[in-house]
Amino acid sequence: MSQNKIKLGMIGGGSSSFIGVVHRIAAYMGEKYTLVGGAFDTDHQKALDFANTLDLDLSRTYATIDAFIAGENNLPKSERIEVVVIVTPNFLHYTMAKQLIEAGFHVICEKPVTNTTAEAIELEQLVTKHKVVFALTHTYTGYPMVRQMKTMIAEGMIGDIQKVDAQYYQGWINPIIHDKEKRKSVWRLDPEKAGQSCCMGDIGVHAFNMIEYTTGLKTTKVLSDLSTLYDDNALDIDGTALLRFENGIRGIVRASQIATGEENNLKIAVYGRTGALKWEQENPNFLYFLQEDTPVQVFKPGHVYNSDFAKESTKMAPGHPEGIFDSMANIYNGAAKAIRGEEYRKGAFPTIHDGVRGMKFIEAVLESTQNGNSWIEIVDEHEDN
C-alpha cells in the first residue's frame, strides 16, 4: 500500500449499493485514496464476501461501526484509516458522523447530512472542535461546467442576478406510490429511515444547494407547497418552493419524484441583468450563456477559455463526455487537499456548512406547507460565512 495515498474506510456501500460504487470509483479516479476496510453491510458475512471480491484485508472488515472505530484506533496512527465515507440510509448519518468525528476521523458523507437542523449544527460544532475535514457529497457541484458557471457569475458576466430557477424531476416513485403495499417497502418513504422528507430531502435539497453554490446567494425565506399524493403516505414526493434571497431577488425550486418518465432531470438557470446561464445534469458538458441581441454561446469542458477552477476540474480532452463519476471525483480530490493540509479553492467540496444550510431549507419548506403555505424565514444567526 502506498504511504502517500489517503487510507479510506466505508460504512455501508456494500454489494447491493449503487451509490457505494460511485464513491469507490470517484475515490480512485484522482489516485489520492486507497480503500482499506470498513463496515460494508449489517450482515457481516455479506460484508466479508464483498470485501473478498475487492481483495481487501478481511481483518479490517468490521461487523459494526463500533468495531470499526475500536479496531482502527488500536492500530498505529501510520496504519489506521484516515477518512471514512458514510453511505447508509439517512437516519444513520448523524449518529455515525458524530461517532467518527469524535474518534478523530475525517468524514465524507452522503446527504442529507442529518435528520434535523439541530443535529447538523451540532456536527458543525464538532467538526470545528476536533479539527477534522467534513465533505458532504452534493455531487453536482463537482461538474466542470457548474464550476465554470459559478466563476462566471462571481466575475459579473451576467450582471446583477434577477431570477433563479432550479428544477429536479424524477419519476422513479410513480410505479410504486399508487400501490399501498409497494410503498410500504421503500425506505425513502419511511420517516424512521428517510427522516422528515422524501422528495425535498432527497432531491429538492440538491436543487437548493446548486442555487446557493453557483450564485453565492443566501436564501432568506421560503414558501412551499408539498404533496404526499395519498393521505396515508407520510412523506412528500412532489413540491414547489418559492425562494427569497438578499436584496429581494426571487427564485424557485421545483422537485418531483412522480414526474412520469423523467430520469434525473436536474436543471438550473440564473438570469442576470445583462445575461443568463443555463445548465442541465443530463447534458452536463454544455453550459449555455445567453445575452440580449447576441447568439447563444456554449461553453464546454477542456477548453482554454474556461476558468482555472473549471479547467482543474476537467480530466478529459475536449469532446470526451464527463459524468457523475468525474463530478464526485472532483469532490474527493478537493477533500484530499484539505485532509493533507494543502491549499484548495473555496467550493472545491461541499462542507458541513452546506449540510446545515440544506437542513434549514428542508425544515423551512416542511413548516411552510404545514402552516398553510406561508413564508418561513431561514435564520442565519449562528453562521459566520
From TrEMBL:
Pfam families registered for this protein in UniProt: GFO_IDH_MocA, GFO_IDH_MocA_C3
Gene3D superfamilies assigned to the protein according to its UniProt record, in alphabetical order: Dihydrodipicolinate Reductase, domain 2, NAD(P)-binding Rossmann-like Domain
Superkingdom assignment: Bacteria
Name this polypeptide is given: Oxidoreductase
Organism listed in the record: Roseivirga echinicomitans
InterPro entries: Gfo/Idh/MocA-like_OxRdtase_N, Gfo/Idh/MocA_oxidoreduct, GFO_IDH_MocA-like_dom, NAD(P)-bd_dom_sf
GO MF, any single term: nucleotide binding
Domain GFO/IDH/MocA-like oxidoreductase: 146-277
Domain Gfo/Idh/MocA-like oxidoreductase N-terminal: 6-137
